[in-house]
Design a protein that fits this description.
With 477 residues, the protein is of the alpha/beta class. The chain has 14 helices and 22 strands. It has 2 domains: 282 residues, Ribonuclease Z/Hydroxyacylglutathione hydrolase-like (Metallo-beta-lactamase, Chain A, 4-Layer Sandwich), CATH 3.60.15.10; 177 residues, Rossmann fold. The strands form 4 sheets. Strands 6-5-4-3-2-1-22 form a 7-stranded mixed beta sheet, with no helix packed on it. Helix 4 runs antiparallel to helix 5. The site of zinc ion has 5 residues, from loops.
Length: 477
């Protein structure tokens, strides 16, 4: 009897956690397709190092192709390791994303090399980085830009189509079409990360729904309705941001630090600040973008955008208040300079980089403020700042630091779909006739989400099976 089954396996941490996306699709005709190949991110450097450094649960040289959903590290930054271990096949990614790949992966290699040095020092023995700059340069020629909305053929049996996800610039969902020996086509859809349809995402193509499929692999970052932002939150956040900057910088000569991810969040926050203050001729406060990667990516945006979005972006970048810093000495001088300014600096979770150096300067100062605007991995420094309880000091780089500055948290800037949007999307998928939905890319809250989703699916008289995955989950469809 012909083998007609397509096997889908979890191959990364996101089957049971939020980061580390990687799924393996094995076709009955022999092709092995990887959907995403991302790193695991943790507040604990050693834990992340161990997990990212361990062996893949497949042989990289047997993989036919990788299809990448988007440019976040937890979705594609393990590809240099994959390349180093023999994964020499095409890595498909949206056309718009291609220009960003090199700066992001080179930055990632620098982080890997730095982390390995820190761990070696701590343990008193040599630890190799998860991958090196040479591995990045080995991986780069394998990337292939693929236009959105069009069918792309991987082999005669396997094709894919990218559908805009609305999450970050160039982000896509993936529709994978597998022709089995009988000639039937089985379609597997993967959401990657879905964008937040409730709030404006500047410079990002809006989400579009995928079509009918046999199986959906769906993200569940916001799997708890209590954590979801409400529609009115954006207005409140923007008011809070403007009030805080006027109070801290204009009235009290202080500094506002906004830790931002280099990719997309920097552009989003810059756009919000520009819209907020561009018509105020008296507003002289410098808006400092201090992050070598973020500055490189601003350049990628300038090159990658088209039409109206490009015109808006260029106009924003001509705003006289913007000051970009890449040079290390200039950065050190800016960190030491107490004059009022708004600083956007990476990393967004305050786990490393220049944002931590600014943090050390401004934490002890009562006239300064930190504005958080994104997801923080538990136990990261950013998470501790955001969930500030009674503590008076924080240990940074093994030194105690007094905490006197203010902290404000904005909740509407997550670029992820919120709970209700996820539920509606997955119920809609079931209604179109999907047989199996895998809930991935979420913490243990996805178990409750599974129950609620099953209830809603049964209300519309569908029998779609819903599985909250773990690392051993396997599907045969
Ligand atoms: Zn993402």
């Amino acid at each position: 009897m012909l083998n007609e089954k397509v096997t889908v396996r979890s191959a990364g941490m996101s089957s049971s956690d939020v980061t580390g996306s990687c799924y393996l699709v094995e076709c009955p005709t022999g092709e092995k397709i990887l959907l995403d190949c991302g790193i695991y991110q943790s507040g604990n450097m050693m834990e992340a190092y161990k997990i990212n450094g361990r062996r893949f649960p497949f042989k990289p040289k047997e993989i036919t192709a990788v299809v990448v959903s988007h440019l976040n590290a937890d979705h594609f930054c393990l590809l240099p390791k994959f390349a180093a271990e023999g994964g020499d096949c095409p890595y498909y990614i949206s056309e718009e994303s291609v220009g960003f790949v090199r700066p992001i992966l080179e930055d990632s290699a620098r982080i890997m090399e730095r982390d390995a040095k820190i761990i070696s020092r701590k343990n008193g023995r040599e630890h190799k980085p998860v991958y090196s700059m040479a591995d990045v340069h080995q991986a780069l020629p394998n990337f292939r830009g693929s236009s959105e909305g069009e069918m792309h053929r991987i082999t005669e049996n396997v094709s894919f189509r990218l559908v805009p996800a609305g999450h970050i610039f160039g982000s896509c969902q993936i529709e994978l079409f597998v022709t089995v020996p009988s000639g039937a086509v089985k379609k597997i859809c993967y959401t990657g990360d879905l964008g937040n349809a409730m709030f404006e995402q500047p410079f990002v193509a809006p989400y579009e729904p995928m079509g009918k499929c046999a199986m959906l692999i769906g993200e569940t970052t916001y799997n708890d309705p209590r954590r979801s932002a409400k529609k009115c939150q954006r207005r409140k956040d923007l008011d809070l941001m403007e009030r805080t900057i006027r109070e801290v910088c204009v009235e009290n000569n202080g500094i506002v630090l906004i830790p931002t991810f280099a990719m997309q969040r920097t552009e989003t926050m810059l756009y919000m600040l520009w819209k907020m203050f561009r018509d105020d001729e008296g507003f002289k406060i410098p808006i400092v973008i201090d992050s070598p990667l973020a500055v490189k990516l601003l350049d990628c945006f300038a090159k990658g955008l088209e039409g109206e979005a490009k015109a808006t972006f260029d106009e924003m970048m001509r705003w006289k208040n913007i000051r970009v810093i890449t040079d290390r000495d200039e950065s050190l001088a800016c960190i030491a300079d107490p004059s009022p300014k708004v600083v956007c600096s990476a990393s967004g979770m305050l786990s490393q980089g220049r944002s931590v150096q600014y943090l050390k300067e401004i934490l002890p100062r009562k006239n300064c403020c930190i504005i958080t605007c994104g997801y923080m991995v538990e136990d990261s420094l950013g998470w501790k700042i955001k969930h500030r309880a009674d503590w008076q000091t924080l240990t940074i780089d093994r030194k105690p630091c007094r905490c006197r500055c203010a902290v404000k948290c904005l909740d509407s800037f997550s670029s992820h779909a919120q709970y209700q949007q996820l539920m509606d999307t997955y119920v809609d998928t079931a209604e179109k006739g999907c047989g199996l939905i895998w809930l991935v890319h979420g913490d243990k809250g996805k178990l409750d989400m599974k129950t609620s989703l099953e209830r809603r699916i049964s209300d519309i008289c569908r029998t779609t099976r819903v599985v909250a995955t773990n690392k051993d989950t396997v599907a045969r469809i």
